[in-house]
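#struct-help
A.M.: can someone run this one for me? Single chain, 275 residues.
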Amino acid sequence: MDNSQKSILNKIILGIYKQGSAQIIEDKKGKWYLIISFSFEPVVRQLNMNKVLGVDLGIVNTATMQVFDINTQKWDRMSWKESKINGSELIHYRQKIEARNKQMYIASKIVGKGRIGHGRKVRLKPVEKTRDKVSKFRDTYNHKVSKNIVDVAVKYNCGTVQMENLSGFSEQQSETFLKNWSYFDLQNKTKYKCEEKGIKFVLIDPKYTSKRCSHCGCIDDANRDCKGSQAKFKCVTCGHEENADVNAARNISIPMIDSIIVEYLKMMSKFKKVV
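D.P.: on it. Structure tokens below:
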């Protein structure tokens, strides 16, 4: 049981959360689990519904955040350190797991007498243990990241958190570790933490948010040179320069940004036909 699960259980015991149905189940590995459903009333607080926290997800920076004020049409000033959640912990863990898997693959070819002749299941025991560790790390890490995101939203009094919908992200990855990483799980954890604080949670289509200039709205492939410098963004129209992740997070923080992008692309398409 991780710290988040312990916290939820304590709140159920104290009556802060309302307990629903409960059941005990056994998984395929013979482990027993107690499954408890629960509900809670969102915390009523004076949130500013005109302030939106945009969250850009990535690898080098697991999350980059920016706060947009609808009234002023400007972004709040945030320090670089506060606006990002560094992905070094995830990258380091990935490298550690990849090295361990390589060692196990070599060791499986020269297994000891205790494992020879006992079938594939016995030989793959170390692999199963590694999978369990990855699963636990992923759960703990996603809880930590989602908590950080919601804490920033509360600090800046944001009534809404907008995050890019990466439901198809894992399928597009060539790296096995990232392919198995659950961004859907991170989204779900952020969603229920937002609901607990009374914050509206919105998923937006991230298409073109990394190539759109948050300053003038120009969308161009040349705005971000992914081959040259992944972190650099420079608009070919207005010359605006910004860290690429910050620029994307600013775009994501704009209400109805996916619709704005669709309309812009339609307008540019008509303009090209006229020209």
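A.M.: thanks! Residues 66 and 78 are 7 Å apart (CA to CA).
D.P.: also worth noting: The beta strands are 18-26, 32-39, 48-57, 61-69, 74-75, 84-86, 158-164, 200-204, 232-234, 241-243.
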